Amino acid sequence: MKKNLHFYLFLLCPAAYLSAQPVAAAAEVVNYIAWTQTPPALSNVDVMHTVRYEYTIPQTRIVMTAIVKCSSDGSTIGPIAQAIINPTPATTETPVAVSGNLYVPPGTMPSAQLPDGQFYRWEASIRGNGNVLILGISSPLTINGPLGTDSFAAKKMALYPNPVADRLFLPENLLNRNISISDSSGRIVFSGMHSGSFEVAGFSPGLYFLTAESGETGKFVKR
């Protein structure tokens, strides 16, 4: 009898019947951000690093990666390097993967020379209007002086010619390895496998940074 009643109500006024039926709630989209690869805890000045994380957001926001200097209470004094990413809205089922390069600029004060209590850290954050922090993650970072004879020196690669106008040649040990190239703002302009040399004629003039999957880094100037 109850089934027949539903059937007759549907025949008499299908729109009203359907609007009265319970609707399954949509899955809630939550803010989420996490490292997919923990950033290095140690760096020298004048070195490029690739930072990888993923995020989920309910609407378009500013997503920012930065190296910041902090006071003893953990509050941010200011960034020494940062890259802003224009994100695409995502759902909890499909987080957005991010890979960005950050350069520890020359002249950065080594951690050992900072005033008492101050320190550096990596940060990745989701921000709203007015740069208001919605959600963020961080990881500690110790910065040493410029490259010398320590283990970081082995990570530097020779690129030639440098400055370069059209074709850049890379070391043979990086043949068929994945590399990424970013400009001075941290924006990645190329990511993929290389075959011994790389065409840069279409690049805008300026300073660029190259990072290999094996950890080697280098920089070059496009004329």
Automatic annotation (TrEMBL):
The keyword Signal applies. Keywords: Signal. The keyword Signal applies. Residues 1-26 form the signal peptide. Pfam families: Por_Secre_tail. InterPro entries: Secre_tail (IPR026444). Residues 159-219 form the Secretion system C-terminal sorting domain. It comes from the Bacteria. This is Por secretion system C-terminal sorting domain-containing protein. It comes from Flavobacterium noncentrifugens. The lineage of its organism: Bacteria, Pseudomonadati, Bacteroidota, Flavobacteriia, Flavobacteriales.
